[in-house]
Amino acid sequence: MTAIPRKLPRQARSQATVSVILDATAHILTTHPPEEFNTNVIARKAGVSVGSIYQYFPNKEALLRALHDRHSTEMADAIELVGAATGGADLHTDLRRLIRAAFAAHEADPALHKMLDQHVTLTRADHPGGERIHQMVGTLLDRHRDEITHGDLARVTWMTMRMTEALVHAAVLDQPPEFASPTVEEDIVVALHSFLTAQVPG
Amino acid sequence: MTAIPRKLPRQARSQATVSVILDATAHILTTHPPEEFNTNVIARKAGVSVGSIYQYFPNKEALLRALHDRHSTEMADAIELVGAATGGADLHTDLRRLIRAAFAAHEADPALHKMLDQHVTLTRADHPGGERIHQMVGTLLDRHRDEITHGDLARVTWMTMRMTEALVHAAVLDQPPEFASPTVEEDIVVALHSFLTAQVPG
Amino acid sequence: MTAIPRKLPRQARSQATVSVILDATAHILTTHPPEEFNTNVIARKAGVSVGSIYQYFPNKEALLRALHDRHSTEMADAIELVGAATGGADLHTDLRRLIRAAFAAHEADPALHKMLDQHVTLTRADHPGGERIHQMVGTLLDRHRDEITHGDLARVTWMTMRMTEALVHAAVLDQPPEFASPTVEEDIVVALHSFLTAQVPG
Amino acid sequence: MTAIPRKLPRQARSQATVSVILDATAHILTTHPPEEFNTNVIARKAGVSVGSIYQYFPNKEALLRALHDRHSTEMADAIELVGAATGGADLHTDLRRLIRAAFAAHEADPALHKMLDQHVTLTRADHPGGERIHQMVGTLLDRHRDEITHGDLARVTWMTMRMTEALVHAAVLDQPPEFASPTVEEDIVVALHSFLTAQVPG
DNA sequence: TATGAATGAGAATTCATTCAT
DNA sequence: GATGAATGAATTCTCATTCAT
Fold first, then answer.
1. How far is A197 from B23, CA to CA, in rounded Å?
2. Do C163 and D118 touch (CB under 8 A)?
3. Which of D157, D158, D187 is closest, CB to CB, to C159?
4. Touch of D by A (3+ CB pairs closer than 8 Å)
5. Residue-wise pLDDT tens digits, C117-127
6. Can you tell me the distance from the alpha carbon of B29 to that of D120, in angstroms, rounded to the nearest whole number?
7. What is the DSSP letter of C177?
8. Number of CB atoms found within 10 A of residue B190's CB
9. For D114, phi and psi rounded to 5 degrees?
């Protein structure tokens, strides 16, 4: 009777606890003043003891890093889901999909995104989602390499990422009056498209 | 005839102390690990007592905000100095000046800029430099309004600001291998120019 | 049959800590110069860490208030124990019991009583003992209402409380040479008795 | 020309400064929260520099003591003014005058009286007013020594002082509902009178 | 004398982390 | 594994007092 391996349930329970802890961390981080962002408050919110946090995370920073990883993975998933990587269309359409995907990813939990940006300083290679997104954008642009004016594709990819991130991020999070409009997405698409296909003057 | 103007000793001394404190704050913020960013360390570095910090700043956050204000003012000054606002040239030249100015402003103290970005969250209206820069960019674009495709100048100004900030910031601070090149500035100028003068496809 | 009742270890431990902290607070308050009345000294004396104080008391003032509550409860207990409330005797005897009880209560820890008086300002309704004592005195006087000249029993109760407190307090704490005598208690009893049964002159 | 002694004006000015400082001290003490009772706030309120406070008072405690002295002198003056010491009347009238005087003295600045009570721990010999008042009460009672039952006049004087202080103090400062009545003064007079002339039972 | 900037010891309070149960 | 009481180093901030001007 003891032949049934009890491993999975145990791990499943661990995973549930980890998840509950990360949920609480995200919640406190986004809805409470910064001085309440501490392990005791997180534990209380999660319904576990402080000790349990340290069972799964060596320290507070690891907790934040884990949350960041989870979030960036979710963002990459969201982008994939919208089909930004599937291709087959013309450049403008592909860019439209990309921007749509970027908005979708940011809209999932904008406040959390903002806080993680502030608290975690990582290069893209440090977290799973970052690298995946970079790959996807690279692939997308590569499919249209002949339309793209600039010769250095790596640099163009990087600039595209930065512009996309900056504009979408700002549109979703800063909510300036100038941007409260349904055409924002298209404006950003145009910006990227014209940049990619620019005829350098003179 | 003892014409040496004896500057008000009171204000001069106070100002010197404030200045020394802000310098020390910037120094600790940029060259020390975050756990050393505390008022005692700042005071020691500044060569004053902790009490003096609290004579001029109600709390630690105010210190950071004051530093942010000083820095953003210096950035606006740097941009003005480069002559981004003087105009008289064609759009491409004006944009080149603007980007040159943005690089100059970021290069003055890139590390400080990065840390302040991370620690102080303010809208542009909340700090002196932010509004001034926004005005300058708005004026610059307004001079070329007939060349600019997009009808909404306010939104274009805002997008230009965000793109400039994102790209220059990234180029100076993240230093990715793709960007370690002398042509970065020109690439950004082209990106902006083509965006501003884009012929929206059908 | 291991009948030893294992008291809830959680509450028992907490209660012990709280108790130890209050004991130390009382000790420092009464035997050390006022500048040593601070949380670090209290913690050291209590044999716990400062953190433990703040686990149970939100701030220093709360610590003082808790001590006041404990002390006033002990005083009310002492008065009850002496049987001031049991009654059955004539007014003079009842008053004698009351004064005896008041002396007993003050003599338990006169120095602490003095310091708490000085540091905590509370109305009788704000602390547990105050209200109980007031009730007991009221009940005592009510039993002899026909002997008491003054019509307003509430006011008489209040005056009795104030006079008792003032005279006993002074006799125990100020220790003036005029009072270093075994007849003090009886003098106070007479004072109260004659006041209560005064024949107001024309 | 320099023969005219400049001493008086100088001293007069000093006295004025001292007075202004004590006024400010009293004001802060009575109308501000305790954490604002500090020398810097007092100096600002007084319109002088902190340095000036230390010109006239060696430390903060001396400031408080000086205020206490001034206040107790004013109280003694008030009592004298009401004529409690003039005598010539019967015991009841004299007591009525005394209580009237005590009320007048307390009503001058009840809040200050309360705070000084809490902050300054002195015996009556330590401050000018205390001794004077004790003398006056002693003299008053001595005039009626043949009516007073208790043999030990020193003790009776002391008890009278304590009872008066406690009851008047409470009536003026604690303002309990039981005491909000115009007959309080007379009630206290009766209490004292009956105590002084008590026929000790059996 | 008066000023008020500067001092700095010291106090209250926090919170990441540990560990006995 | 889970708990949560206990820890204590570290941090922010205060304020009586000094002293150069």
1. 45
2. no
3. D187
4. no
5. 888 876 667 78
6. 47
7. G
8. 21
9. -65, -45
Q: For the residues B156-161, what does the mean pLDDT come to? A: 90
- The residue count of chain D comes to 202
Q: Which range has highest mean pLDDT (A155-164, C6-15, C173-182, D54-63)?
A: D54-63
* Protein residue closest to E2, using CA and C1': D52
Q: Which of B48, B39, B54 minimizes the C-alpha distance to B20?
A: B48
Q: What is the per-residue DSSP string for B85-134?
A: TT--S-HHHHHHHHHHHHHHHHHHSHHHHHHHHHH----GGGSHHHHHHH
Token look-up 């607070």 returns C25
Digit-coded pLDDT (tens) for B92-151: 999 999 999 898 888 888 999 989 988 887 666 778 888 899 989 999 999 999 999 988
Chain B residues with CB under 8 Å of A154 CB are 178
pTM over 0.90: no
Radius of gyration (C-alpha) of chain B in whole angstroms: 20
Q: Which residues contact D103 (CB under 8 A, 6 or more apart)?
A: D168, D171, D172, D185
Judge whether C125 is closer than 8 Å to chain D, CB to CB: no
**Strand E: which of residues 42-61 in chain B lie with Cβ below 7 A?**
47-52, 54-55
* CA distances for C135 relative to C83, C108, C129, C142, D140, angstroms: 14, 21, 10, 10, 37
Residue given tokens 């809490």 in the structure block: D118
Has residue C5 got a pLDDT over 60? no
In angstroms, what CA-CA distances link D137 with D28, D140, D155, D160?
A: 33, 5, 12, 8
Give residue D108's identity as a one-letter amino acid code: A
> Band of the pLDDT at B9, cuts 50, 70, 90?
low
**SS3 string of chain D?**
CCCCCCHHHHHHHHHHHHHHHHHHHHHHHHHCCHHHCCHHHHHHHHCCCHHHHHHHCCCHHHHHHHHHHHHHHHHHHHHHHHCCCCCCCCHHHHHHHHHHHHHHHHHHCHHHHHHHHHHCCCCHHHCHHHHHHHHHHHHHHHHCCCCCCCCCHHHHHHHHHHHHHHHHHHHHHCCCHHHCCCCHHHHHHHHHHHHHCCCCCC
CA B36/CA B59 separation, integer angstroms: 16
